[in-house]
Amino acid sequence: MPQQRPFKQVDVFSTVPFSGNPLAVVLDANGLDDAQMQAIARWTGLSETTFVLAPLNPAADYRVRIFSPEMEFPFAGHPTLGTAHALLDAGMRPKGARIVQECGVGLVQIERGAGGMLAFQAPPCTARALAPALLPLLQTALGGAAAAGGTIVDMGIRWLCVPLPSAATCLAVHADIAALTTLLAASMADGLALYGAHGADGPADYEVRALLSEHGALVEDPVTGSANACIAHLLAGADYRVRQGTCLQRDGRVSVNFRDDHAWIGGACLTVIAGTILA
């Protein structure tokens, strides 16, 4: 029998409402089955909807399942931060100094910072170079923009990470959707993560764009925690700041910090809708 369940919609990676990446959070999903969760995610229509459950691992503060309108993901970045924010906003008290999320890739550590900032420790990943035979297809997918190569980084979601000569080059890319669809299938990647450096006086250190093919249509994700975590694996070293979502009239801001051989992907979150959902 459907019941009213606590529900929030959170804007992730932004301090200004409607400038980041929205996330729907069902704060008590105990008793919902897979089909019900998928139906709710399809109905919200957001890139991801999360469902909070009692943890199975005693070290975790909670367990989360992450669904797009089409499928479940073992991990995703902006849902990780947004879910933690929604729970803290609802009064959750973590067991320890760090929040511990249980999800499809295991346990993910989340830290709280000044001003309500949250950061997750990037999960372990694997990486492989894009096959040289696919470089011409990559060039076509980028609409002719210059790219020397790419790396597929698998962190539960597989991003084909491609460095570009500059932030301006990144912003100017007009993707060829047919070539992008073929490229992602051939490289076994879920999406294309582009990044280029800003100048010394720029709004951030890097500009990032995340492009996907959904049913043959081009989709750009506003601000993407997992893509930034995969890029961080390739840029490991000095801390840096990212702007993402510019081409969508968003102003997402991501902080990347390196400590003890781990990348921490952080940003601000805002609750924009709070209420209940009948499910």
TrEMBL record:
The active site is at residue 48. GO terms for cellular component: cytoplasm. InterPro entries: Phenazine_PhzF-like. It comes from the Bacteria. It holds the Pfam family PhzC-PhzF. One of its GO terms (molecular function) is isomerase activity. NCBIfam families: PhzF_family. Belongs to the PhzF family. This is Phenazine biosynthesis protein PhzF family. It comes from Janthinobacterium lividum.
